[in-house]
Write a structure and sequence with these properties.
The protein is mostly beta strands and 472 residues long. The protein folds into 2 domains: 2-42 and 366-469, Jelly Rolls (Sandwich), CATH 2.60.120; 44-362, 7 Propeller (Methylamine Dehydrogenase, Chain H), CATH 2.130.10. It is 2% helix and 50% strand. Strands 1, 3, 4, 38, 41, 42 and 44 form a 7-stranded antiparallel sheet that branches. Strands 2-37-43-39-40 form a 5-stranded antiparallel sheet, with no helix packed on it. It is globular, with a radius of gyration of 25 Å. The model has no long low-confidence stretch (mean pLDDT 92).
Length: 472
């Protein structure tokens, strides 16, 4: 009897591995127009250019031109890949935020604000006495810059044609007395994100103050990580926290918060000791729009595909130690028809691509753990396993000229694992190659794990086992 194995099931291990062992590392599910589901490897990273300082702290795209902060340096990168130093800021680490009026580009680093004149590359610190200290977030909406500040309920605005800030041009997030952690512009409105609540302000253009809170719109799910809010697929996502708990990922749909994390993902977040330093990256590639949660203290990365509503994990394999750590991306912008991400560890800027099968010279470890194979606790005898995948994908040069796929299994529901057994994925042009294994023993609660590390295209279509059912 042939049965399909659960390689395309639930993503993420839950409270009990026995109940749900499914896990995806550096791969995600993609529905096809034929009604099938494939498992595909995530985008790889190759070096686009290198900034003189490190780490990369933030970026902004102005079409073909992009702006970057690395260490304390602020840089402009031109279409011909020339990197120009515009100036230096006073801090050397921590994320920065940008906002542009089309004439001026402002950035804030949590301590000061800085102004770039786009036409001339003039760079200067904002020294206006009316600009409060410790700005943490900056946005631009309907000809106004909007700035929020550390440990404050206030947000300040400035018309973008004015050279100065007015100390009286502020309002207070008043739906709940919690400080503003972050802000995002969503669908033409300003969303103020606090510890306990979110509230939405609309643009009125009033001469006294151009924004007004939408009465009755207070979302009672706050944010625990100030840098976790991110926009993707016309929605806002954030790592939640409020008076009753934390560790749920929410999205704002209309004026309602909807939970998008699963119990399995929330269990992963619960196991992380420090989640307040989490930050997000959003990007679109090949029709998938991703919201990525990075946990730098824990060295963990979680990815949510807003297109399919499914989660996966990401990791960067250290070529020296062989250990998986946080995915090496601190920020993202789309510039010059490229998805670009800054490195969390160095001044490197990487290009993302589905036809890039490495991470800056390091292998991408793609793993998928199946759900538990069981049938009324009867013994199942596994005569053969066939992994249906795109074969004949070998490269002309090492590594990957004869790529392999590995299989191992656990007979105790995913707690302990046996040794890897490898078979070919087919050298280049060997499209009839089959990935299969024989004489696989028997078990009641078997879990399968597959792995590919070779630098080749990897798309898994299905897993099929030839089994005999025994007695309990």
């Amino acid at each position: 009897m042939r049965v399909q194995m659960g390689f395309s099931g639930v993503q993420g291990q839950g409270r009990s591995i026995n109940a749900n062992s499914g896990e995806s590392l550096n791969c995600y599910l993609e529905p096809t127009s034929a009604g099938e589901t494939i498992l595909t490897r995530r985008a790889g990273q190759k070096l686009a250019f290198t900034l003189p300082n490190s780490p990369v702290r933030g970026c902004f795209s102005d079409s073909e031109i992009s702006y970057w902060v690395a260490g304390n340096g602020v840089y402009k990168r031109t279409p011909d890949n020339i990197v120009k130093l515009l100036g230096n800021i006073a801090t050397v680490n921590g994320l920065v935020n940008f906002a542009s009026s089309g004439v001026n580009l402002l950035l804030v680093d949590g301590v000061n604000g800085w102004d770039i004149t786009l036409a001339t590359d003039a760079f200067a610190q904002i020294v206006d006495a009316s600009f409060p200290p410790n700005p943490v977030n900056i946005n631009h909406l309907n000809s106004f810059f909007v700035a929020t500040f550390k440990n404050s309920q206030r947000f300040y605005v400035k018309i973008d044609t004015s050279a100065t800030w007015n100390a009286l041009d502020f309002a207070t997030a008043e739906g709940n007395p919690d400080n503003i952690l972050s802000q995002k512009v969503l669908n033409g409105e300003l969303v103020l994100i606090g510890y306990e609540t979110l509230e939405v302000w609309g643009f009125t253009g009033n001469a006294d103050f151009p924004f007004q809170r939408n009465q009755g719109v207070v979302i009672d799910h706050g944010c625990i990580a100030p840098n976790s809010p991110g926009k993707a697929n016309d929605a806002l996502y954030w790592l939640g926290g409020d008076s009753i708990g934390s560790g749920i990922v929410w999205t704002l749909s209309g004026y309602q918060a909807q939970r998008v994390s699963t119990h399995e993902i929330e269990q992963k977040i619960k196991q992380i000791l420090l989640i307040e330093d989490a930050f997000s990256i959003t990007y679109q590639i090949d029709g998938h729009i991703f919201y990525i949660l990075q946990f730098p203290s824990a060295g963990k990365s979680l990815g949510y595909d807003t297109t399919t509503g499914l989660w996966h994990t990401l990791g960067f394999r250290d070529g020296t130690t062989g250990l998986e750590n946080i995915w090496r991306a601190s920020c993202h912008c789309f510039s010059g028809s490229m998805n670009l991400v800054g490195d969390t560890q160095s001044g490197k800027v990487f290009q993302l691509g589905m036809d890039i099968y490495e991470d800056d010279g390091n292998d991408i470890v793609m793993e998928r753990v199946s759900t538990v194979s069981k049938n009324a606790q009867d013994y199942l005898f596994y005569q053969e396993m066939i992994i249906d995948l795109e074969t004949g994908v070998g490269n002309n040069a090492s590594p990957g000229e004869d790529p392999k796929i590995g299989l191992c299994w656990s007979d105790d529901g995913g707690h302990t694992w046996g040794n890897w057994r490898f078979t070919t994925m087919g050298k280049i042009g060997q499209y009839r190659a089959r990935a299969y294994w024989e004489m696989l023993g028997s078990a009641r609660n078997r879990v399968w794990k597959i792995r590919v590390t070779d630098r080749v295209k990897c798309i898994l279509l299905a897993g099929v086992a030839n089994i005999k059912q025994g007695l309990s």
